[in-house]
Every structure is written in C-alpha cells, then in structure tokens.
Amino acid sequence: MEILVCLKQVPDDSVEIRLKPGTEEVNLDGVANVVNAFDTYALEMAARLKEAVGGSVTAVTVGPEGAKDAVKTCLAVGANQGYLISDPAFEGADTLGRSKILAAAIKRLETEAGKPFDLIFCGREATDRATGQLGPQLAETLGVGVITDLVDIEQTAGGICAKQETEEGYRRVEAATPCVVTVNKPAYDPRYPTIKNKMAARKMPIPVLSAAELGQVDPGQPGVHVVKVYEPAKRQAGVKIKEETCADSAIKAVGMMAEAKLL
Amino acid sequence: MAYLISEEAQELLGAVKDFCEKEVKEQCKEYDRTGEWPKEIYDKAIEMQLHMLEVPEEYGGMGLSRVDVAALFEEMAKADAGFATTISASGLGTKPVLIAGSEELKKRACQIIVDGGFGAFCLTEPGAGSDASAGKTVAVKDGDSYVLNGRKCFITNGGVASFYCVTAMTDKSAGVKGISMFFVEAGTPGLSTGHEEDKMGIRTSNTCDVVFEDCRIPASNLIGAEGKGFSIAMKTLDQARTWMGCIATGIAQRAMEEAIAYTKERVQFGKPVLKNQALQFKVADMAIKIETARQMVAHSLTRMDQGLTYSKESAIAKCYASDIAMEVASEAIQMFGGYGYSREYPVEKLLRDAKIFQIFEGTNEVQRIVVANNTIGRF
Amino acid sequence: MDWGNRKDILVFLEQKEGKAVNVGLEALTPARTLAGLTGGRVLALVVGTDNAAAAEKAAVCCDGVLSVEGSAFGDGCADALTCALEAMVNKYVPAAVLAGNTPLGRELTARLSARLCLGSVQDATALKIEGDQVLWTVPVYGGTVLNDVAADTLPMAVTVRSGAFSKPEASVAAAVTAETVEVPADAVKARVLEAVKEISEAVNLEEAKVIVTGGRGMGSKENFALVEELAQLLGGVVGATRPAIEEAWVSRAHQVGQSGKIVAPALYIACGVSGATQHVSGMSGSGYVVAINKDEDAPIFDVADVGIIGDAMQVLPVMIEEIRKRKAE
C-alpha cells in the first residue's frame, strides 16, 4: 500500500501554555516543537499496516523550514520518505487552506512517483487547536471517502476496514481506496526510534515543495479570524488540610463540606 | 554543562532522554522497592538499541565516539543507575573478546548483543575480590575442549546474560600468569546461576553467583592465549572503569537537579530555602565536583578513542566520580531535610545507588594504587 | 453584521438510537440568540430512519423541525448525512449551521465547510454579541488559552461544546416538516458493517450535581471502587481522568476533561488526580472542589476549595464512613 501521513508540528502539549503577561501573545518561549501526538499515532498505525501488507509510507507537513524536524522525526519511526511543503504564500492558511495545499501536493507526488496513494492518514485533531477539521476537509477536497477516529485498520480486497471508536464502543466501517482516515489513540503506543534509524533519518534528504512546484494552488483566506486572546478566569485556591493523620484530615474536610451545605 | 558531543549525538540524546523520562525514571522507583529485574524496560531499551551503543561499527554497531556514548549513558544513569549499570556491564562483558578474542569470537559476541542479548564479566570469586590471583575456578584442557569448574560471585547480569567472559586457572602454579579467559555461552551444560544478591542499591540490575560444574566449552572459546587471562581482565577493567565514572556522574547530576528543584519550591521563613547562600554554595560545590568528574570521564574516553594510554585517567575518573557521587547524593539529602530521608522522595535512592560505584570494578582503594603506580613509577 | 437574505439558524440534531443527543439540544440555545439578531427562525434538522422521538423533543425548543427520513441514513453513515445537511443548507439558506462538537458534528461541519467554503468554528464554549460582532469563544492549547473568534462567511459553521450551553426551556411545539433528500449512490463511500456497543451504562456527567473523579493516583481497579462507593453515597456520578481510563479501571464514558466531558457540578471531588491542564479545563466550572492527593504540589490544589494532602486510599474510607455517620444523624 502507498500511504501518506499528513502531520503538523505543534508546541509540546505536555507544557502548560500561557500568554505573555499583559499581552494577547502566546508565550512559546522555551516550548519545544513536537509532532502532534495524534499524528504520531497515525504514523504508527500506517507503519504497522505497511509492515503487514507491504508498501511505503510518506510523511508530509505544511509549515515553515523548522517543520523539517517534524518530518525528520517521522523518518526514524516508520516513514520511508518525507517532504516539507513550505512557502510564504501558505502562511496563515487555515485547515481548509491547508487541505487544498495538501491536495495539490498529493497530486504532485503521485505524478512524480507514477502511482497514486491508496491511503491518507491524519491525526484526529492537533493538540494546539483541536478542531479535527483537516482530515474530512482533505477528503472533500480530493473527492474521496473519509473515516474518522480510527483505533485499528486492516486491508480488504478492494480497500480497507477500519475500527472506528464511538462513544459507546466501536464500529467497523469499510471504504474503498483511495480514502482518508483520521486516527485516535489506538491500543498501542508509537514506537521509539532505534538509534540506527535515528542516525539514518538524519542523513535522508527532505525535499521542500514550494507553491510554484505545486502549480496553481490558492489556500484562500481563512474563514474565521481571532478577535481576542485571553486566559480563562482562574479559580482561587482554597485551604489545604494536612492533619496528623489522613483520618483526621478526612474528618475535617467532611466537616467543611457539611458547613458548605454540600452533603 | 555537559559533554561536548556531535550534533548527531545531541539528537540521539533527545530521543534517549524522552525514552528515559517516559519508560524508565518513574517505573524504576517501584522496581527499586521490589528488587525485581524489570525485563519489560530492558526489552524496550533493546528495541531502541540502547544496549548496543558500545558495539564497534564493523561488528554491527553505530560508530559513535565514546564521548557521544557517554552523554547517552549519563542520561540513562540519571533516570536509574541500575538500568545504566546493566547496559554498561554488558559492555564490560564484551570487552575481553574485543580486546583479545579471535575474529570469530568478536563476531559471535557482537552478534549476540545486536540480536538483543547481554554479556557478563566473571572475575570475582568468594575468596578472590581485589586479589584476582586467589581465584579457584579452574579450566582443564581435554582434547578440543576446556572443562570449567568453580564459582564466581557478584556477577552483574549473571542471571540474565547470553554469554559470559570467565577467568579460570589453567596453571595453578603460575599465579596470575596461570589465569586464562574463556567465552561461555548461556545454556552451555554445566553452567548455572546461584545465589542472587539482595542489594542496597542499583536494584534494577541483576547480581548473582555464576556456577561452573564440569562445564565443557570448545577450545576455540579461549580468549587470547593461555595465561593471558589476568592481563586481559586488567585491560578490560581499565577501559570499563571510565564508564562506571560516567554512570556515577549521572547519579550526581540527578541528585543536584533534584536538590535544586526541591529547594526552589520549599519555603521556610517566608522564602524558598535556595535563597540562602549556604544552600547556593552547596549547589556550587556540587556543580564543581560533577563537572570535574564529567570532564575527567570525557578525557579518559577521548584518550581511548585516540589510541593513547588511559589506565591512570580511567582510574581517576572512576575513583573521583564515585567519591563525589556519594558526596553530592548525601548533600542532596541534606538539602531536602527530613523529606530527603523519606523513601517517598527520590534522593535517598541516589545515595544507595552511588555507594557501589566506590566498590565494584576495582575498589577505590585499588584505583588509588593504579593512580599511584602510574604517577610515581617504579623506584 | 449584514446577514443579507440569510435569517434562519439551522441546528443539526444528532441522534443516538432514535434519541436526540443532549449537546444537539443545547446548541438550540445559542441558535436562539443568533436568531434574535437575524430575525429568523431556529430550525432543527433531524436525519435518520425514524425521527419521531427526536423531532418531538426538538419541536418544543425551536421554531421548526426539518425531518429527513430514509433508509440511506440507517447506519449513521456520515456520507449520507453530509448530503442531507448540504441539501437543507442549500434549500433554507441559513445564516449559521450549528451542531454539537461530537465526532459526527465535527466531521459534518468540516465537510460542509469544505464543500461550501465556509468559515468553521469548533468546540465553542460561549457566544458573545459585542456590538455588531458575533464572537464565539474557543479553547486552544488544551484550554489554557481562550480565543474569541468571528466567522467571516455566511453561513458560518459552528460546533458547540457539550455542557457549555443549557437546553432551552420547552414551550409550544413547532411544526415538523418532512423533507426528502436523495442520496446519490456514489456519494456513499464508507459503509458501516457493524456497530458494537461495549459501554452499556448511561453516564450523565453533564447534568450531575455531584461528581467523584478518580485519577492515576488511585493505583488499581480495586482501589477505584472507593471512588465509586463515595459517588454512590453522595448520589453522584463517577468521573475519571485519562490515565485511569487507559488503565481500564472504568469505561471512557466517564472521562472528564478536554477529550472527555466538560462538567460543572455543585460538588466535585478529585481523588488521586494530579490536575493536568487537559483535566482541569474540563472541571474548573464546578461549584465546590475537593481534592485529595499525597503530593502537596499537585496542580489540582490550585483549583480546589478544600485540598486534602494525603493518600486517597487512606482518606477515602474515613471520608465515606464520616459522611455515612452524618447522613444517619
């Protein structure tokens, strides 16, 4: 199977991100850029599928030069090749704009390779804005099917069968290829890079595709604009109880809850 | 401050740090309590190839410089010294083959490591610690074989190794010149493991007796020549010692980082206790010691990489780093106050982990003999 | 804001087993606010094989229900639903299309916005009308930062967060209009083979008055039973953090936080919960927060009215006993 994984570089989501005091500017000083967690799940699922049925995994991202690091990271954990799509004209594109850019890049890469992608993987959402729009929008732009929130996938005769997580359990959904899938957290964790793969990934070229190389692609104007950026009102911390024993603390806390008429 | 390493190694360091933070550091707290050997952590480390950093490139390794590898080892040691010790002891167990083994044995040993195995080095015996010549394990040549009999003790990786490099007497009358070195694969009939030590520290590493009862191995498993075993063992230890210094430095670094983080938060008399210059000076002394130890480790490894002598430097690195690891861990506990003495906090473990580094792979008294001999010369 | 000829507000009402889901009904509330600006109607769109129950439920909260029925919508397949939504948007020319921020709601609005080139707002937690501007509040970076955003297209597509708006008061039932949408065969690209129900319990965190949540610090499934016992004693609902769910101590229907439910009970008791941003952003609207954690520095204490520093396994049994005693009195 020829598989494409679309990824996004985001600020490390294990860090609590705040605004610079007194401003509307997000403080990203000292916050590392990482590959969006859901995209790492998508890559792992794609890599496992490739290892099971054969084929190749290509990683691609739209972003500035620095986003090459995200592609490089993927080359050490299952991607066979990677591309960065980068152009000043693409800055500020929203998810719909990025789906148009990606669709143009997909056409270009398919022409170059002389064969189409069978499957396009995306994370279910990015940890920074969590809109979950890109996968379905990319499918619409390409005119192919989409299955969201996968936790597992297998190849079938004419396409794929996906295990889609639902609130009550899961559904098994099938679709013909080519199609787009978005990935939720599966039962397994993404692999760590082996030292050798990490060293090899360093040496692999990551071609950059600019707007000119993608032909006529117009990401358009974003359909939404931000008017105000602020932090949510903070709750006031109350009292801490640390009595001689845990039992004493518990009894004291129950007393306070009763006083607040909560029992 | 840190080792001066290549950009490539910097990237690897990031990956190793990520692995250690997520898979080793917290998990090992519980294994430290139970003393269980955390196979699943080692399996993950093997999958990531962290166990084969010292394998030479021509035998399937990655071709990193020793200083690059040291930076990665320190990161592992910061997460858990027992974890780093297991991996380093495997390197120790491979060194006799790499120093003096036949091409065939080198390929064999390295392939076992690459395939996910560990090595172990068997020198110490109940009656032969610092005095290796007092060893009672014997190897008798019988046709195309050697037959080994004896008991080794305090063997790191003893119960988990895939192969062992073992010293045994081939000529009892010749003293240390009668010692030879043998390569014994796990599963060889007559090879078994005995008593497992319940250790004070590095409890995530396995330490046990290794027993040879009419253990027959091919004669081609003799490493080097008969009678060269002691010399090979000493060369092995000369090299391996620096790595112990590297791990000890990692323990000290962790202790300092924990102490700084805690005393920045701990408020007494209305301010963080680290605002007191008395504590700041403690941190300064820690940093001075740690950085000195680290650069001694780097210096010794660079000499190894450049083919220069390193016996004295290696001894200094191991001796100094382990001594200061004890000092820094102890001071870290002091900075934590009463909480430092509690097993709920991370620093008491560091002191327990650090102690062994003054003892194994040549006690620090032996290290001082090595340094003295190399400094004073014969007179 | 110039609404042009667009006046109605269309709300896609998701159904589960023939019942309208809560967040869909909640979306009728901001829809009402918008309709007040446009002077249009609030129209609820129900799509399925048998819409009777959902349509009835919605009719009393809106100005008109559009009911699209057909066998094509049987398996909840998003392809057919997208067709129905697009057809109704084209027919009724609404000023805004709203849906709950469920996986289906997100997918439908994303696909609609791609087809019609719409500005799309996800996971809105509030609607503000400032002068001429319609502003939606959306959380970013796991909820530590909020953005007020404005859509630049008509219609605008918006999904709203579960629990962020309260359901409208019921009034006179509006008319239900049957609509027909033909789904072209080639529009259906994904087929649902089977739907497996693993979680049968009904967990209503959004409307709970008391929630007792257990986190990683509970240590085991056995210990987690203490959380369940306390919740039962207080007539509350069990909540859980992501680590507790990943450990399979409790089903994911109980998840509170950014990727689970956003809750606002009168009393919230967090047991062995460290207080990661993703969790706190889902419970910080609670009335009174009690936290139990042995780590004095756990961030959960920053949002707790009462913080008990201690091992939840030791605190909870005593707490349960003490509450029982007080209830008996």
Keywords:
heterotrimer; B: 379 residues; Butyryl-CoA Dehydrogenase, subunit A, domain 3; 3 domains; four-stranded mixed beta sheet; 10 strands; 52% helix; 16% strand; C: 329 residues; alpha/beta; Rossmann fold; 2 domains; five-stranded parallel beta sheet; 9 helices; 28% strand; elongated
Mean pLDDT, all residues of chain B? 96
Strand order of the biggest β-sheet of chain B = 1-4-5-8
The tally of strands of chain B reads: 10
Q: Please indicate the count of domains of chain B.
A: 3
Q: What is the total domain count of chain C?
A: 2
**Topology-level CATH name of the largest domain in chain B:** Butyryl-CoA Dehydrogenase, subunit A, domain 3
Q: Kindly state the number of beta strands of chain C.
A: 18
In terms of per-residue confidence, which ranges of chain B show pLDDT below 50 for 5 or more consecutive residues? Answer: none
Mind telling me the CATH class of the largest domain in chain B?
Mainly Alpha
Oligomeric state of the chains present here:
heterotrimer
Which superfamily, in CATH terms, is the homologous superfamily of the largest domain in chain B? Butyryl-CoA Dehydrogenase, subunit A, domain 3
* Beta-strand fraction estimate of chain B: 15-25%
Q: How are the strands ordered across the major sheet of chain C?
A: 7-11-6-1-4-5-12
Low-confidence stretches of chain C: none
Helicity level of chain C, as a percent range? 25-40%
> Biggest interface and which pair forms it?
A-C, 77 and 83 residues
Instruction: Give the helix/strand class of chain B.
Output: alpha+beta
CATH fold category name of the largest domain in chain C: Rossmann fold
